[in-house]
Amino acid sequence: MLLEDISAPITTLAGIGGKTARHFHKLGIRSVGDLLQHYPRDYEDRSTFTSLAEAHATGKATTVATITLMDYIGKPSNPVLRIFINDGTELAALVCFGRNFLSRKFSPGMKVFVSGQFEMRYGKLQSTRFIIEPYTESPKEFGKILPIYPTTEDLPQTILRSAVEAALRQYLPLLDDPLPPSLLAARSLPPLPEALAAIHFPPDRDALTRARTRLIYQELFFLQVIVVRAAMKRKTQLQAPVHFPRTLQERLRRSLPFPLTPDQEKVLEEIYADTTSPRPMARLLQGDVGSGKTLVALLAALPYIEAGHQVAFMVPTELLALQHAETAHTLLSPFGVRTALLAGTLQPAARRTLLSAILRGEVDLVIGTHTLFSDDVAYRNLRLAIIDEQHKFGVSQRARLLEKASHPDLLLMTATPIPRTMALTLYGDMDMSTIKTMPPGRKPVRTHLAVLGKEEKVYTWVEKELEKGHQAYFVYPLIGESEKLELRNAESMVEFLRRRYPRWKVALIHSRIPDEEKERIMREFMQGKIRILVATSVIEVGVNVPTATCIVIEHAERFGLATLHQLRGRVGRSDRQSYAFLVYSPDLTEEAKARLRTMKETTDGFLIAEKDLEIRGPGDLLDGTIQAGHLRLRIAHLTRDAPLMHEVRKDVEALLARDPGLLRPEHTLIRTLIERTDKEPAL
Ligand code: ADP
Ligand code: MG
Fold first, then answer.
1. Burial class of residue 240 (count of CB atoms within 10 Å of its CB; 0-12, 13-18, 19+)
2. How far apart are CA 402 and CA 508, in angstroms?
3. What is the CATH number of the domain that holds 73?
């Protein structure tokens, strides 16, 4: 049996009823398998003993002692039990606040285990935080390393521990090891049952280290099997050679009012080399907000279109789809390229007409959200899939778009750079292109911080910009009022801002506004009829209105760094000086302070990504990418474990080189796990 297959609900374990189970559910633990993979966040080492005498210096002791005396202190109406112990090195008092019941279990003369934190009081060692247990041959909480689990207030460690103990007792003997014995031997890793037992209840420090390494290795192993197999598959699936002419590309370039930046030129060549190669393209294009990725993507699409192929351009929001569709239409229709927006708002009849045009090949470039891979969408000859803001999509969504054709070329774009170590191991089979330089004439956005209460200055500044004919965004963390949070919200602030700026048209946009309405508002904002756009973070990605020069983000402390950076990227899109105002509430957490400081200090997206990683760890950054399907990293840590990842990769490459189909009997379990992960195919 595989660990992942232990689906029996936790209520099947002795001692866990419906009420307790609900507390477990809050931790995401439903099955016994979940419980066994709920790894400790820390340990308390009670395997080694330290005497009371040592507590003078360290403040802690774990010892075997004898009870010398028991008495009560405090008011007679509210007595508190006191237990005196002596371990041969020193005397100490245990003050039992709220634990007078201990008098029933213990008496003077008894030998006991005691562990606690001690301090000097009135010249004597004393503890109020301790645990005590009668001395026996097989103590419950002494002589071992005890696990400390991530938990909630309702679920004490003791209940978690005994649940895990019960689960181990029942299931360890049934557990199969997915890793082949040869690999375990070569890397001196313990078998799964041993590792699982030791991660929860380590007999000693060494065993714990070996168990951890083994479990981390296993998670990275499956991650790499998927990445390496995808790479191998791509290498073998060669495309038919086609001549991809660049006449259209050249003509569009010459018609542009500006030259491409050197980085744009370089990337375009890298992509064209992939285009003409028989190996399907898998390229990740990283470039900071405003660096001109959209234009590169459209130029890159032209050789495909000229050669008679179709291109799909997928973006995360309707708003962005609309905007890209307009850009594409403006730039490409003069050359006879047929572009279409597969909007979510299309009426059924219009949608049917468009879908049949796509199927007949009467559309060259289709732009849309995840609607592009809906079941009813079929392409005549899709050869290139472009995915903008790729980090907003999960692995399986990207894969589903690719299923719309046999091995189309894939161009992923992102303004949220993936730190190098991670890029290498996760996208190790992808080629990378980077646009570092901005189009000439861009002035870095000036960022100002303002504490709530001082925002009037900001509003006045914005007024001056509006008077110059420019436009502004105001961003809020909430759409409407919230019962829980006392925050400014978009709906009430739009009213305020209409009164504050009576001369200009102010509009509200957020995810609950119907799509048609959103389209109308965006169009009027692009045309400059609407001068102030009040929004939530829906405008985070991609929105490109060069005449907008101000963005005011209120309650800026509530946004993550990546989002703040993306939001700021909505301005500074022309040669006009732009401004970002981050209005924050007082009482900032240290983390929030660090985020705001970073925003003030730099506009470099790569630097910000590294800072982000530093401040909050890599977890969320990768959520969409790998936390899909069976692949959840519960113990491995992509940056910390990067060195091991390289080793694992070598092992996986060697294994798959020898046995690509994983056909040997010793690989049966690996294959089973992979077949399941394949249902959510990786890129
Ligand atoms: P992003 O990389 O954020 O997707 P966009 O593709 O939206 O950036 O480009 C931002 C703006 O820069 C657009 O208005 C675009 O027309 C303009 N732009 C792109 N390339 C250049 C260039 N080489 N010179 C001047 N402006 C450019
Ligand atoms: Mg973009």
1. exposed
2. 36
3. 2.40.50.140
Is the distance from the beta carbon of residue 260 to the nearest atom of ligand 1 less than 6 Å?
A: yes
Bridge partner residues of 69 (DSSP) = 84
Residues 460 and 596 in one domain: yes
Question: Does residue 570's CB lie within 6 angstroms of at least one atom of ligand 1?
Answer: no
Same-domain status, 408 and 450: no
Q: Which of 263, 570, 573, 574 to mutate to test the pocket of ligand 1 (most atoms within 8 A of CB)?
A: 573
Distance of alpha carbon 499 from its chain centroid, rounded?
40
d(CA 126, CA 91): 9
Residue nearest to atom 17 of ligand 1 (CA): 292
pLDDT confidence of residue 672: 84
Neighbours of ion ligand 2 (CB under 5 A): 294, 542
For the residues of 119-187, what is the DSSP string, one character each? EEETTEEEEEEEEEEE--SS-SSSSSEEEE----TTS-HHHHHHHHHHHHHHHGGGPPPSS-HHHHHHT
Whether residue 290 has its Cβ less than 6 Å from ligand 1: yes
Q: Is residue 115 part of a domain?
A: yes
The residues, any chain, with a CB within 8 Å of residue 623's CB and separated by 6 or more, are none
- Least Cα distance to 528 among 511, 498, 553, 549 occurs for 549
- Radius of gyration from C-alpha coordinates of the chain: 31
Read off the pLDDT band of 395 (50, 70, 90): low
Q: Which domain, by its residues, includes 90? A: 48-143
User: Computed from CA positions of residues 364, 365, 368, 370, in that sequence, does the dihedral angle turn out positive or negative?
Assistant: positive
Mutate to test the pocket of ligand 1, among 264, 268, 284, 294 (most ligand atoms within 8 A of CB): 294
Q: Measure 460 CA to ligand 1 centroid, in angstroms.
A: 29
Confidence label for 537 from pLDDT (cuts 50, 70 and 90): confident
Helix (H, G, I), strand (E, B) or coil at 643: helix
Residues 636, 648 contacting (CB under 8 angstroms): no
For the whole prediction, is pTM greater than 0.85? Answer: no
Q: Which ligand is nearest to the CA of 286?
A: 1
Counting ligands in written order, the one closest to the CA of 542 is 2
| 258 CA closest ligand 1 atom index | 24
The predicted pLDDT at position 407 comes to 80
CATH number of residue 480's parent domain: 3.40.50.300
Cα atoms in the Cβ-side hemisphere of radius 13 Å centred on 5: 12
Query: Mean pLDDT score of the chain, rounded to an integer?
Result: 89
Q: How many domains does the chain have?
A: 3
Confidence category of residue 681, pLDDT binned at 50, 70, 90:
very low
Q: Residue 261 domain-assigned?
A: yes
How confident is the model over 480-484, as a mean pLDDT?
A: 81
In this structure, is residue 104 part of a structural domain? Answer: yes
Burial 205-229 (b: 16+ CB within 10 A, else e): eebbebbbbbbbbbbbbbbbbbbbb
List pLDDT tens digits, range 182-224.
Answer: 999 999 999 999 999 999 999 999 999 999 999 999 988 988 8
pLDDT reading at 251 higher than 60:
yes
For position 504, what pLDDT does the model report? 97
Residue 18 falls inside a structural domain: no
Shortest-distance atom of ligand 1 to CA 264: 23
